[in-house]
Amino acid sequence: MSRFLNVLRSWLVMVSIIALGNTVQSFRDHSFLSEKLYTGKPGLVNGLQARTFGIWTLLSSVIRCYCAIDIRNKTLYNITLLTFFIALGHFLSEVFIYGTAAATIGVLAPLMVASFSILGMLIGLQYLEVETTLHNKKRN
């Protein structure tokens, strides 16, 4: 396996672990979301919304961790990539469309993580294609 894919796997595990922490915070105290993420309209954040955010974050975390374990699974890889596009779209829409989030470090951090992850995973696709081609040539 290429060095890049190993780094990408480590990145996915790290992002997954951080997401687990965010999940716990979302369930423990919903003020976490109103103080760190949805600062534009903190009054809209309630316990139900925080738990929904926590479940979404947990699901993304599990998908990303499984991708790190089985990074050659193209379907899982594409679903994982999609989780980052969804997160990017969500946070951008909350800042620029709905106004519920402001461009604070609490929002910029997940935007940067999603952006770097998308870039890394798109580059990783090229490495996976090369490995698949080499593997197929060895079999023939």
TrEMBL record:
It is found in: Endoplasmic reticulum membrane. One of its GO terms (biological process) is sterol biosynthetic process. Residues 1-26 form the signal peptide. It is a multi-pass membrane protein. InterPro entries: Erg28 (IPR005352). The chain crosses the membrane at residues 50-69, 76-99, 105-128. Keywords: Endoplasmic reticulum, Lipid biosynthesis, Lipid metabolism, Membrane, Signal, Steroid biosynthesis, Steroid metabolism, Sterol biosynthesis, Sterol metabolism, Transmembrane, Transmembrane helix. Belongs to the ERG28 family. This is Ergosterol biosynthesis 28 homolog. It comes from Pseudonaja textilis (Eastern brown snake).
